[in-house]
C-alpha cells in the first residue's frame, strides 16, 4: 500500500484518513523524545551518510513515486537518476531550470553498510536528519520509519529493527517543497497556462528563495539499550565566583526487573581537564541536581570580555546493573540573562546588540550546510566587530550554532514563521510545533539569548491578538529563562502608482471640501502599525524592521533620523519594554559607484547607514534602545522578480563573502561601539595610514 505525501495535494490526502493517522503517529513518536546532537563517546558511534545520493524528480506527476512504490526498490530501477550531494539544496547544483523551479516531490536514495559488530554489541541504532525542507518521508529497506514536516529542524528515529547488520541497506527519502497557507512558512499554489499546457507554480510573500532538499547532515548513531535521551541545563553564579549548573537528565530504554540505575557527572574545562566540583543530587539515581564550580569562568559575548565564549563540558555517565554504560558530553556555558523594561543584561552587565539579519544561503549549495562557508562567515562576523545576529527567518544548522557558542556570538533564535497571515488552529499547531522543536534543540545553548516567534507577521489582522498571545504563552511554558521577541513590520501591498493615485484623489477631495467650507481645517485619521499592532503587547522585547529612504521615499536619507527616533520612542512608550532594530538597510550593487550618492550605489548604502547611526546614538542615550541589526550580512537569492537583480543585494558582503564599501563602514561603527561600551581595543588595521599626527594619541572614528 502506497503512503501519500502529507503536504502536496492536501485534498487527496484528506480522503485517506487511515494514512493520515499513520503519518501522525510517526511524527508524534519521532518528536516526543530528546534530540541531542550525535556525539561519539566510549559508548556511542556515529556514522555519516553524507555524500552522493541518487536523485530524481517525481515526474510526470508528483504522486507517481507513491503510485509505483519507488521506495520498494533502488531508485535507479525506477527510471533515470542523477547524483545529488547531501547536504545541499538540489535547486542550483544542476544546470537545469526544471530542477531549480520544480514544485512538488523529489526522491533520494542511498545504500550503506551497517557493521555486524553493532548487532553483536547490542547497540540501539538511530537515524537522524539535521533538516529536510519542507517535508519528508523516510523508508529504510522498504519500511516507512519517519515522517516530518517543517524544514530547518532535526528529526530522528530508532531503526534497529529495520536494519540488516553486516549487509547492504537502503534508505529512501521523499521530499516535498510545497508551501500552503497552513505550512510554516506559508505559501500558495497557482495554476498558470503555458505553451505546453497548464502548470502549477509556487508563490510566497517572503523575500528569499524557497530552497529544498536534504539540507543538513544525515547520521546513523548508536547508543546502549539504556541511554541518555535528553539533558536540560540552566546556569547561574554567585557573587563570590561560584558557578552553578542545574541539570536534569532523562533516560530512554527499559530496565530489567531488579536492575538499578545510576548517573554520575563530571565537568571538564576547555582544556579537557577535570574541574573540582561539588554535586548535590535531587534523587537517588543522580538524574538531577546542582553542580557548583569554584572560581568559575563565565560565558561572555565577543568583545565584552578578554575570553569570550568560554565553554565547559558536562560529562554524563549513565550506569546500569547489567548493561553497558552510556556516556554523553554536552558543552555548557555559564551565564545569566536578565531583562527589565529598559535593558537587556548578560551576567548582570547591560549588553548592546550590534549585528545582522542573515540567511543560510550561498552559491551552488543554496541552504546546504558547509563548514568552509560557516568558518568564513564567523571570521567576517568577528572581523567586523559584531556580537550578535538573528537567525532570520528559520533555525540555522546546529553546526552553525556550535560556532556561536564557542565564539561568544549572541543569537536571537527565530522559528520559520514569516509574514504570518490567515490565522487558523491548524497553522497555530504547526507554528507552536516549530517552536517546541526549536526550543528542545537549542535550550542548552549559552549563545541563544532570545526566542523570536515571527518575522513581519500581519499582526493587525483579526485574531492576531489571541493567536500570538497563545504562541507567547506556549514559548514561556517551555522556557522562562529567555525573553520572547519578534520582528514587527506591517507592510501594505500598494505599489507606487496606487500611492500616487491616492495622493491625487485625496488632494482633489481636500480642494473640494475647502471650496465648500474654507473656515475649518481639514484632517484625516491614518492608522499606523503602532495603532493596529496586536503582538507587541505580548512580547518581552520589541524588535522592529523599517526601511526608511529605501522602500519609503528612496533617495531621501534626510528623513531617516527623525522618523526612526520617533518610531522607536513610540514603541517603548506604548509597551514600556526594551526596543531594538531588527532590520534596516538598502540594496547596493557591488562595484556600482555614483557621486553624489544614488540608490543602488555603494555610496548610497553607506550614506543610509550613517543616518541610521545618528539615530541609534540618540536612542542609546535614552536608555531603552538595546541594539541595531543591519539587513543583511550578505547578498542572497530570492524568487525571480523585476525588483531583485539576481537576488537581494542588501548585504554588506556579496554572496561570495567579499566586502562592499559598507562592510568597512560598519566595521568602524561596531568596533567603536565595542570600544566605547565594553572597553575593547581597536584592531590595528581599522584605520588605514594616511598621515602622522603626533598630537593625536587616539583615533576618533
Structure report:
By secondary structure, this protein is α+β, with helices and mostly antiparallel strands. The chain has three domains: 33-177 and 212-223, Galactose-binding domain-like (Jelly Rolls), CATH 2.60.120; 227-335, Immunoglobulins (Immunoglobulin-like, Sandwich), CATH 2.60.40; 338-496 and 503-678, TIM Barrel. The chain has 14 helices and 32 strands. It has an eight-stranded parallel beta barrel with strand order 25-26-27-28-29-30-31-32, surrounded by five helices. A hairpin with a 2-residue loop joins strand 11 and strand 12 (197-203). Helix 8 runs parallel beside helix 9 (464-478), helix 12 (560-575) runs parallel beside helix 13 (602-620) and helix 13 runs parallel beside helix 14. Mean pLDDT is 90; it is low at 1-30, 492-506 and 522-527. Its EC number is 3.2.1.31. GO terms for molecular function: beta-glucuronidase activity; carbohydrate binding. Residues 46-224 form the Glycosyl hydrolases family 2 sugar binding domain.
Write the SSE topology:
Layout: H1 10-14, H2 17-32, E1 46-48, E2 51-57, H3 64-67, E3 82-86, H4 97-100, E4 105-113, H5 116-120, E5 124-129, E6 132-133, E7 135-140, E8 143-149, E9 155-158, E10 168-176, E11 188-194, E12 197-203, E13 213-214, E14 218-223, E15 227-237, E16 243-252, E17 261-268, E18 277-281, E19 288-293, E20 312-320, E21 326-332, E22 337-339, E23 344-346, E24 349-350, E25 353-357, H6 371-384, E26 388-390, H7 398-407, E27 410-414, H8 425-442, E28 448-455, H9 464-478, E29 484-488, H10 496-516, H11 529-532, E30 542-545, H12 560-575, E31 579-583, H13 602-620, E32 625-631, H14 661-678
Parallel strand pairs: 25-26, 25-32, 26-27, 27-28, 28-29, 29-30, 30-31, 31-32
Antiparallel strand pairs: 1-14, 2-3, 2-4, 4-10, 5-9, 5-14, 6-13, 7-8, 7-10, 11-12, 15-16, 16-19, 17-20, 18-19, 20-21, 22-23, 23-24
Protein name: Beta-glucuronidase
EC number: 3.2.1.31
Keywords: Glycosidase, Hydrolase, Lysosome
Amino acid at each position: 500500500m502506497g503512503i501519500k505525501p502529507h503536504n502536496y495535494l492536501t485534498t487527496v490526502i484528506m480522503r485517506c484518513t487511515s494514512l493520515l493517522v499513520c503519518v501522525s503517529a510517526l511524527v508524534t513518536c519521532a518528536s516526543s523524545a530528546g534530540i541531542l546532537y550525535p556525539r561519539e563517546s566510549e559508548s556511542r558511534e556515529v556514522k555519516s551518510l553524507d555524500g552522493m545520493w541518487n536523485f530524481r524528480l517525481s515526474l510526470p506527476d508528483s504522486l507517481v513515486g507513491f503510485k509505483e512504490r519507488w521506495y520498494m526498490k533502488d531508485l535507479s530501477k525506477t527510471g533515470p537518476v542523477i547524483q545529488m550531494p547531501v547536504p545541499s539544496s538540489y535547486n542550483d547544483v544542476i544546470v537545469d531550470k526544471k530542477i531549480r523551479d520544480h514544485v512538488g516531490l523529489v526522491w533520494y536514495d542511498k545504500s550503506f553498510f551497517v557493521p555486524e559488530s553493532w548487532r553483536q554489541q547490542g547497540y540501539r541504532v538511530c537515524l537522524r536528519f539535521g533538516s529536510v525542507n519542507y517535508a519528508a518521508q523516510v523508508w529504510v529497506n522498504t519500511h516507512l520509519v519517519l515522517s516530518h514536516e517543517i524544514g530547518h529542524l532535526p528529526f530522528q528515529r530508532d531503526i534497529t529493527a529495520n536494519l540488516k547488520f553486516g549487509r547492504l541497506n537502503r534508505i529512501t527519502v521523499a521530499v516535498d517543497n510545497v508551501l500552503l497557507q497552513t505550512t510554516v512558512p506559508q505559501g500558495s499554489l497557482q495554476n498558470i497556462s503555458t505553451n505546453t499546457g497548464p502548470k502549477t507554480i509556487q508563490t510566497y510573500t517572503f523575500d528569499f528563495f524557497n530552497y529544498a532538499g536534504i539540507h543538513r547532515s544525515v547520521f546513523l548513531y548508536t547508543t546502549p539499550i539504556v541511554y541518555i535521551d535528553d539533558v536540560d541545563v540552566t546556569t547561574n553564579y554567585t557573587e563570590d565566583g561560584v558557578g552553578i549548573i542545574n541539570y536534569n537528565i532523562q533516560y530512554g530504554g527499559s530496565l530489567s526487573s531488579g536492575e538499578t540505575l545510576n548517573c554520575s557527572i563530571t565537568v571538564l574545562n576547555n582544556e579537557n581537564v577535570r574541574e573540582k566540583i561539588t554535586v548535590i543530587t535531587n534523587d537517588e539515581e543522580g538524574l538531577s541536581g546542582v553542580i557548583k564550580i569554584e572560581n568559575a569562568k563565565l560565558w561572555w559575548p565577543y568583545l565584552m570580555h578578554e575570553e569570550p565564549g568560554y565553554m565547559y563540558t558536562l560529562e554524563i555517565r549513565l550506569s546500569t546493573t547489567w548493561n553497558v554504560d552510556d556516556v554523553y558530553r554536552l558543552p555548557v556555558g555559564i551565564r545569566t540573562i536578565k531583562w527589565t523594561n529598559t535593558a537587556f543584561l548578560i551576567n548582570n552587565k547591560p549588553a548592546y546588540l550590534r549585528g545582522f539579519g542573515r540567511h543560510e544561503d550561498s552559491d551552488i549549495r543554496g541552504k546546504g550546510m558547509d563548514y568552509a562557508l560557516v568558518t568564513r562567515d564567523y571570521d567576517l562576523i568577528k572581523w567586523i566587530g559584531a556580537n550578535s545576529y538573528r537567525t532570520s527567518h528559520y533555525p540555522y544548522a546546529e553546526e552553525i550554532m556550535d560556532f556561536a557558542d564557542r565564539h561568544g556570538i549572541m543569537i536571537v533564535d527565530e522559528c520559520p514563521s514569516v509574514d504570518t497571515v490567515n490565522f487558523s488552529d491548524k497553522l497555530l499547531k504547526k507554528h507552536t510545533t516549530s517552536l517546541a522543536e526549536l526550543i528542545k534543540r537549542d535550550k542548552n545553548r549559552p549563545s541563544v539569548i532570545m526566542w523570536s516567534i515571527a518575522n513581519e507577521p500581519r499582526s493587525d489582522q483579526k485574531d492576531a491578538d489571541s493567536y500570538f498571545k497563545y504562541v507567547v504563552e506556549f514559548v514561556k511554558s517551555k522556557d522562562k529563562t529567555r525573553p520572547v521577541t519578534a520582528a514587527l513590520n506591517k507592510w501594505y501591498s500598494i505599489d507606487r502608482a496606487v500611492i500616487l493615485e491616492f495622493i491625487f484623489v485625496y488632494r482633489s477631495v481636500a480642494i473640494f471640501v475647502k471650496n465648500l467650507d474654507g473656515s475649518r481645517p481639514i484632517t484625516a485619521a491614518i492608522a499606523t502599525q503602532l495603532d493596529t499592532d496586536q503582538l507587541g503587547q505580548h512580547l518581552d522585547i520589541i524588535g522592529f524592521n523599517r526601511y526608511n529612504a529605501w522602500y519609503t521615499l528612496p533617495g531621501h536619507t534626510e528623513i531617516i533620523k527623525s522618523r526612526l527616533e520617533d518610531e522607536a520612542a513610540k514603541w517603548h512608550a506604548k509597551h514600556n519594554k526594551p526596543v531594538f532594530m531588527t532590520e534596516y538597510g538598502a540594496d547596493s550593487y557591488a562595484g556600482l559607484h555614483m557621486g553624489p550618492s544614488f540608490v543602488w550605489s555603494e555610496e548610497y548604502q553607506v550614506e543610509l547607514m550613517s543616518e541610521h547611526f545618528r539615530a541609534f546614538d540618540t536612542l542609546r542615550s535614552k536608555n531603552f534602545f538595546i541594539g541595531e541589526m543591519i539587513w543583511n550580512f550578505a547578498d542572497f537569492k530570492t524568487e525571480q522578480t523585476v525588483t531583485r537583480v539576481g537576488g537581494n543585494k542588501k548585504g554588506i558582503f556579496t554572496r561570495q563573502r567579499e566586502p562592499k564599501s559598507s562592510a568597512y563602514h560598519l566595521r568602524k561603527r561596531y568596533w567603536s561601539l565595542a570600544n566605547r561600551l565594553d572597553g575593547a581595543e581597536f584592531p590595528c588595521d581599522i584605520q588605514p595610514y594616511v598621515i602622522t599626527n603626533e598630537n593625536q594619541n587616539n583615533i576618533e572614528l
